[in-house]
Design goal:
Blueprint lengths: L1 H8 L2 H6 L7 H11 L6 E4 L6 H9 L4 E5 L3 H4 L10 E4 L11 E6 L12 H12 L9 H12 E12 L8 H10 L3 E7 L2 H4 L7 E7 L7 E6 L2 H5 L10 E3 L10 H8 L10 E2 L4 E5 L6 H4 E2 L1 H7 L6 E5 L9 E2 L1 H9 L5 E3 L7 H12 L25 E4 L1 E3 L4 E4 L4 E2 L3 E6 L1 H5 L1 H9 L1 H8 L3 E2 L4 E3 L2 H6 L1 E2 L2 H5 L3 H13 L1 H12 L5
Parallel strand pairs: 1-2, 1-4, 2-3, 4-5, 6-8, 13-19, 14-18
Antiparallel strand pairs: 5-7, 6-7, 8-9, 10-23, 11-20, 12-15, 13-15, 16-18, 16-20, 17-22, 21-22
Helix pairs in contact: 3-4, 21-22
This protein binds S-adenosylmethionine (SAM).
The site of S-adenosylmethionine (SAM) has 22 residues, from helix 4.
Length: 508
């Protein structure tokens, strides 16, 4: 409840500046229960926020003392009183604290780039000395929270952290993974597959780490959780897991996401695969804030006398594209059928017909909507180039992948792929991989389920997906790729079959 009040009253920018994303109660309870198993004498929460961990711990055992650090003076005004039993809140930067000796540490650390941290130049040398480590490569504060907390944990102590799953693929994560595994700290990883249900606010896959400083080399438990109901029915997380991995199966220099996601799929992500971001970037489509006003048909453009200069070719709705390949001819066909394949893109704002149409929009209050009122002027849409590969944002079953050869830009119904030099050279090959059954199931491991078989993909999910590396793509025969693309225009099933056959090469 306090969280709702806080979120409604606090500007988003402030929350972003402090990386304030709150742990849901049921997840906090799961972490707290595990933490309290060996009757710790004292507990530390390095990033207290609104105190969700304290609340849960206090409900289970009100006699344990918790120390919480919180840097933000604004959030601190939301604590009801200064008189919570067994709680000490320290109103300062955890990274500058000089503490140790905790039996239990529980944390949802701020996940933000170190460059954004104001005091970094001051605190970095002190921290490096204290932790006896060079921290220059540690691009994210969360990783420093984890390293520091491990040092402050007593022998036999327990530590649980909530982190984005991608943490295990980052360069700066390598050393931490090494510490976690080689010091036999890591006992269990819990991955939430359906974050929309559990973490409505976040756009990355979240996981929990459970560590204990008991020096015992035990198999690492891997748990995947699908929805809130599953969490609510859980009693002891340590007894709930689908897989176990030996230390040797989690090498620190390798990305852990493919290793772990492979477990729950009938496909193993080849370990030399790279991330899609190697070839470019997925970006969400143009958000107009008033699609009905911005999307236009050919006849509307003529009736309104807007002229070619003030519109752009645009895919405004997902169902407009039915085939895997979308060409300029397909676009013309849709245009001739008077479908909404243009969007208002004002270049000449002094043209009387444009002024008239904008006035119509203003009469409807469209200039005063959340998105439009933050734009100057309200009708200026983002500048985008046509994206050569498009991915459906919402999908049922197969993920909609389109090779776009037209000059049309797109609304938010699709995410567009904008290739870099490597991507530009390999667009058709990447498309073949995305179309294949293997590519589809690897991409799907990053999706968010919305229930009813409806899945959503965010641009970040797609950028983090795994795909063949440059050397592997070079092994694909160009002629075969062109064949798939020709097939995709007329016979989708055959195109999928052929692309899957080509892709088999990487899974031997
Ligand atoms: C991701 S939130 C988690 C809040 C709460 N523990 C929860 O799980 O709901 C991180 C919190 O740490 C605070 N924070 C950020 N940087 C900090 C720092 N250097 N020292 C202490 N607290 C910090 C933020 O203001 C925010 O409230």
């Amino acid at each position: 409840m306090l969280e709702h009040k806080y979120i409604t009253e606090t500007p988003l920018k402030h929350r972003q500046n402090y990386a304030q994303f709150f742990t849901p109660e049921n997840v906090a309870k799961l972490m707290a229960k595990w933490l309290l198993k060996d009757q710790p004498k004292n507990i530390l929460d390095p990033a207290f926020g609104l105190g969700v961990f304290y609340e849960q711990i206090n409900k289970i055992n009100p006699n344990i003392h918790l120390t919480g650090y919180e840097i933000d003076s604004h959030i601190r005004t939301y604590y009801h009183s200064n008189n919570y039993p067994n709680l000490t809140i320290i109103n300062s930067d955890y990274l500058q604290s000089d503490i140790k000796g905790y039996d239990g540490i529980i944390c949802n650390p701020p996940y933000m780039r170190f460059q954004k941290f104001l005091n970094r130049h001051e605190i970095l040398p002190i921290l490096e000395k204290k932790l006896d480590k060079k921290l220059t490569g540690y691009a994210n504060i969360a990783s420093i929270f984890l390293i520091k907390a491990i040092q402050e944990l007593n022998d036999k102590g327990r530590l649980t952290f909530l982190l984005p799953f991608e943490f295990f693929n980052t360069g700066y994560g390598t050393e931490i993974k090494q510490i976690l595994v080689e010091q036999n700290l890591l006992k269990q990883i819990v991955i939430f597959n359906n974050e929309k249900d559990i973490f409505p606010e976040v756009t990355t896959t979240i996981c929990l780490l459970f560590c204990q400083k008991n020096g015992q080399n035990e198999p690492i438990k891997i748990t995947t959780i699908q929805n809130n109901q599953e969490i609510n029915n859980l009693d002891k997380i340590e007894n709930y897991y689908q897989y176990t991995l030996e230390k040797s199966e989690l090498p620190s220099e390798q990305k852990w996401t493919p290793i772990i996601t492979s477990l729950s799929q009938n496909i193993t992500i080849p370990k030399d695969f790279c991330q899609v971001s190697m070839y470019g970037k997925f970006t969400r489509g143009i958000a107009t804030g008033a699609n009905d006003f911005f999307a236009l048909t050919k006849s509307q453009i003529m009736e309104l006398e807007l002229g070619e200069n003030n519109v752009s070719k645009c895919i405004t709705k997902s169902p407009l594209i039915r085939k895997f390949v979308f060409t300029e001819d397909d676009f013309q066909e849709l245009s001739n059928q008077n479908k909404s394949v243009y969007c208002l893109n004002v270049k000449d704002e002094n043209q009387p017909s444009v002024i008239n149409y904008l006035k119509q929009g203003e009469k409807l209050g469209l200039h005063d909507r959340y998105l439009t009122k933050n734009r100057k002027p309200w009708y200026k849409i983002e500048i985008r180039q046509p994206a050569p590969i498009l991915f459906g944002v919402f999908n049922r079953g197969r993920i909609k992948v389109i090779r776009n050869y037209s000059n049309a830009i797109n609304f938010t119904c699709f995410h567009g792929f904008y290739p870099n030099v490597f991507g530009t050279e390999n667009l058709d090959k990447l498309f073949v991989y995305f179309l294949s059954e293997q590519g589809q199931s690897i991409i799907k491991s990053n999706k968010r389920s919305y229930g009813n078989n409806l899945d959503k993909l965010e641009p970040g999910d797609l950028n983090n997906c795994f795909c063949p590396n440059l050397k592997q793509l070079n092994l694909i025969d160009n002629e075969q790729v062109l064949e798939v693309i020709e097939l995709a225009k007329t016979n989708e099933k055959k195109a999928i079959l052929m692309s899957s056959k080509i892709t088999e090469l990487f899974f031997k």
